[in-house]
Amino acid sequence: MIDQMGFKPSECQRHINAVWNIINFLLPDHLPSKDFQIKERIGPVSPTVSQEDLDKTQKTIQPLPQKLFLKTKFVDKGGFGQVYSASVKSYVKDGQKIRVAIKKIDHSEKNVRYNLMEIFFLSLCDHPNLVYYVSSYIHDPKKSKVEPELWVVMEYLEGGTLTTASKATLSDNHIAFIAREILRGLEYIHSKNWVHRDIKSANVMMGIKGQVKLIDFGLCADLSTGPQMCMVGSSYWIPPEMMAHDPHGLPADIWSAGVCLLELLNHSPPFGSEPHGGFKCMLAAATRGLVDQIPDTATPGARDFIKRCLARDQYERATATNLLKLPWVNQPDLGKGIDVVLVQMFLGNVLVYV
């Protein structure tokens, strides 16, 4: 099957640990018997947030007041739960009620730790390229068998995600602008010695005024607690070191950002339009890398930038600070006109509240 996908068996054999880990990650219920033995390189997994910090975060969550949110409207859903937009009676700016995004998440016992981690990291962030956190509430229907629900309230952007933006044809300048804004957010996170670990197009929000903001900190890790070694995230954006179960850190986010840029250039993630695309992408990343996915139409500046993001050896990968010094993301008038493009792109979302 692997050779039919264009991968040489000898190539995969050299990276057999990574191949096995990919299969284990994508198809945990279809593994061979325990007689299949392979040398594991998984070390002890360090906690990403201390229990003390999680306990403090838990105390900040309030019971959901009645009739706090007005004109609630469904926006999107995913594996995490559902997102709604709403205005809030008590939040007023310039005489108008502010609209917020409400992320409603299952808060049953198995999800509590991840939910608290997201609130912990979000509440400590203050940067224009990271989504602004407002507050959290617990909706606990005690008289029913429904699990409690956590409502994480954040700023609302009248736009959409980078996934939607990738379907449009953007100019080189505008892709460079988006790259710069993503890297500015990552530089801030990395300055705290945090690694996001789930950078992907669906976790990059865009506003109609040109805002580019990172969201979803549920898999974020504080590296001061120790090295991380488990494979987490979404298949197309996972870096090679995670697949090998090697210790990973800040360079993991740089790889994922590079894949996001490939998505903008190719209108889908690598192999995204092919059957078993996630598996193919992970296998290619683990064995040969993804540099060959940079299209011939990419400008020299874009090509150089993305190649630095997609170095297979994490220790040779550029840092966010170094990438932000490159000429491609320092061109004059980089974001000029992107607000017009974004309004047209996300017109349906804009008209909802006009």
Description:
The chain is an alpha+beta fold and 354 residues long. Helices cover 34% and strands 18% of the residues. The chain has helices at 9-14, 16-26, 51-60, 112-123, 162-165, 172-191, 240-243, 251-266, 277-287, 300-309, 320-323, 338-345, 347-351, and strands at residues 62-63, 69-78, 81-93, 96-106, 133-139, 149-155, 160-161, 194-195, 204-206, 212-214, 221-222. The strands form three sheets. A six-stranded mixed sheet has the order 1-5-6-4-3-2, covered by helices on one side. Strands 7-9-10 form a three-stranded antiparallel sheet. Helix 2 (16-26) packs antiparallel against helix 9. The model is unreliable at 30-45 (pLDDT under 50).
Write the layout of secondary structure elements.
Blueprint: H1 9-14, H2 16-26, H3 51-60, E1 62-63, E2 69-78, E3 81-93, E4 96-106, H4 112-123, E5 133-139, E6 149-155, E7 160-161, H5 162-165, H6 172-191, E8 194-195, E9 204-206, E10 212-214, E11 221-222, H7 240-243, H8 251-266, H9 277-287, H10 300-309, H11 320-323, H12 338-345, H13 347-351
Parallel strand pairs: 1-5
Antiparallel strand pairs: 2-3, 3-4, 4-6, 5-6, 7-9, 8-11, 9-10
Number of helices: 13
The neighbouring-strand order within the major sheet is 1-5-6-4-3-2
Named CATH topology of the largest domain: Transferase(Phosphotransferase), domain 1
pLDDT < 50 runs, ≥5 residues: 30-45
The average pLDDT score comes to: 83
What is the gyration radius calculated from CA atoms? 21 Å
Total beta-strand segments: 11
- Mass-distribution shape: globular
β-strand amount: 15-25%
The assigned structural class equals alpha+beta
Q: What's the architecture of the largest domain in CATH terms? A: Orthogonal Bundle
Order of helices and strands: HHHEEEEHEEEHHEEEEHHHHHHH
CATH superfamily of the largest domain: Transferase(Phosphotransferase) domain 1
Largest sheet: 6 strands, mixed
Please identify the top-level CATH class of the largest domain. Answer: Mainly Alpha
Overall domain count: 2
First and last CA, distance: 52 Å
Q: How helix-rich are the residues, as a percent range?
A: 25-40%
